Each structure stands twice: as C-alpha cells, then as structure tokens.
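We emphasize that the prediction below concerns an isolated chain of 396 residues; any contacts that depend on oligomerization or on bound cofactors are therefore not represented. The input was used exactly as deposited, without trimming of termini.
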Amino acid sequence: MGGVGPSGPRCRRERTVEHHVVVIGSGPSGLATAAELVARGVPATVLERGAVLGAAWAGRYDALRFNTSRLLSALPGAPFPREYGQFPTRDQYVTYLQEYAARRHVPVETGVEVTGLQAAEDGEGWVVSTDAGERRAQHVVVATGIFHTPALPEWARGHGFGGQVLHATDYRNPAGFTGRRVLVVGAGSTGLEIAHQLATGGAGSVLLSFRTPPNILLRTVGGLPGDLPVPLFLRLPAGLVDRLLLAMQRRVVGDLAPYGLPAPTEGPIAQLRRRGAGTAVVDAEVLDAIRDGSVVVVPAVQSLSAEGARLADGRRVEVDAVVVATGYSTGLEPLCGHLGVLDERGMPLDGTGGEVAPGLRFVGYVYRPGLTGYVGKAARRAAREIAAGRRATVTA
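Result of the prediction step, given as a token string:
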C-alpha cells in the first residue's frame, strides 16, 4: 500500500535518478519482489510514501491479528518466529517485514510518494514521477496492494451528521469512544473485530450494520488454525469448496439469524470472486458478543442525519460516531489508469507478476485466501523473468 499518491505539484531534482528496477510499495509484495531481484544480482530500489518501511501495516488498528496462520502467511525462506504464536499481530508483522528487508539487503527509500508513471519517450523503460523528482527505470513493479485506498459509501460523503465519521483505516483502538454510541458499518473481519473491541472497550453501545450477509469462519477450530485446509481447498473445484465451507459454518458458527445476521446466500469463493470480499474470519468471542447483545446487528445504512442514521428498514438510530469498515480499492487509477493496464474494477490485467506492458508488472493484486504468503510466488515469477531478460540483454 506504499508509494502511490494523487497527482499534484512536483518538487523536481536537477537530474533524473536512474534505476534498473523501481518497486513501488514496501509491503510484503514489494519487499519480496525486491529481495528476489537482489538475490539474482538485479539492482532494485523500493519507494515507500510512508515514513517507515511497511507503513501501511504499521498504520492499521492496534489489535490487528492475522486471519491466516503464520505457516501460510510467511514470505519464501522467511518463517515467522515461533514466539509470534499462530497468528501474528500488527506490530509483529511490521517487525518481520523490517527484518526481512534488512537481512536480504533490500534498498528502501521512505517518504517518497509516487505521483505518476509514464513510458519513456525514447521507448526505453519508464519515467516514475515522485514528490522528490523523476526516476528513470528499465522496469517498474507496482506493489501498493489491493487494500490501498479507503472505500466510502455515498451516504458517508457530504452528510449532515453532527458526530464523527471515520473509515476503519483511521481507527486505532476504543480509547476515544468511551461511553459513546457507535455504529460500525461492514460485517467483514475488520468490522466485526472493531465492533467487538468497542463493545468490550468501554463504548456506551455498539450497533453493527451490514448490507450483504458475510461468510463467517473461526480463526481457530478445535485449537487448530482454521486455515489449515486452504492449500487443499485451492486445488478443488470452487463449487465443492463453497459447499464444504457453508456446511462448516452451519456446524461450527451456528445460526445467527435470530440475532440479525442471516446465513450467506453464496459461498466464500463465489463471494470472493464476485466482490473481492465476503468472508469474515474472527474469534469465537466476537460471535459471543453478538449473541449476548453487546453488539446489536442492524440493517444497512441508507443515509446519515444530524443525530444518526436511517436504516434500510426505515428505522432511525441515534449515534455519536460511525466507523465505516466497507473495504478498500486498489487506488491505481491516478497512477496508471491512462496506460490501459487495468480492468473495470481497477485491478491490473495481471496481478501475479506477469508483464502487462513492456517493463511494467504488478505483484500482489489477487483476491484469494492467504495473500501475504502467496505474494512470494508472484514475486519470484516477476524477479525471475526480469533477471532472465537482463541476462539476455547483457549477453546479446
């Protein structure tokens, strides 16, 4: 989620800095790609708009933990320390990324925001515009992540609500919500977890609004990580996997319809392919908070008024704050929408490391379980192909 920013005034250096490969973003996709390039003797530089390496992860809410186990979430050749437990925390993961980059001698420039990307006029590589001047590169790898730009519903913009409205990306912890009536919008992993944190962290009351019933899976089942079967599931037909997971939800999660959260109408894989989302992976105590009324589930929000929200069933609820956990977009349009390399959802035509234009690749733009572990494979593909092209050029 690192280096992309909106176009704007640029502070140019007197000369253009030359690179063989520029990688945009210092999350797992960008660092893994750069590490694989460095290991093959290919010079690469990572540009990160944040003040620290892995800034997007460092800026997430305090109590964040992985939904996938450490076994399936690590980058190639870099297992998580056992002391991290089964599901690494936000701070553990930031430390992991920083140590990963240091051990693999990955050059990262922080505080550099990428504002534009153009093919070089002479046909040799790319011109990367940044707020610190232009960079010239033979190859560019975009790795800013599919969860880059907060997505806000129309009703959350230009409203007359007198309270606080914030996206989940700006939420940190319940400390500022003591005694307040809070409406959390979005029943994915983030929305459910934030609602639970608020309910147990001192909020006066917590409502949880949803539009599409999510598939809900537990982080652990019988003391074991719930994602252990994922490698097998990815080899099976999607329809069969959906049937298996829907049956698992009925048995393990149970019926939440009496508490306002009906069963999903389609399986996790179908929702993932259609929406890029749809599965909430949580701990059992999050569901307990719904069952005991600590978190009250309500229908979708239609609009905001001065005192609160109007719901899809016509009810009006008075709240003091609204936390919008309705997901993210790639945010790639300002950077490369003019290049013809994005689909109608703003996703790259190939997000797995393949070349979408001469010298231009995207790594990590795939909707699938265990993405933080999977991106290592895409990074290897991109690095291998770039290195092979460089060797061919040198020996020609």
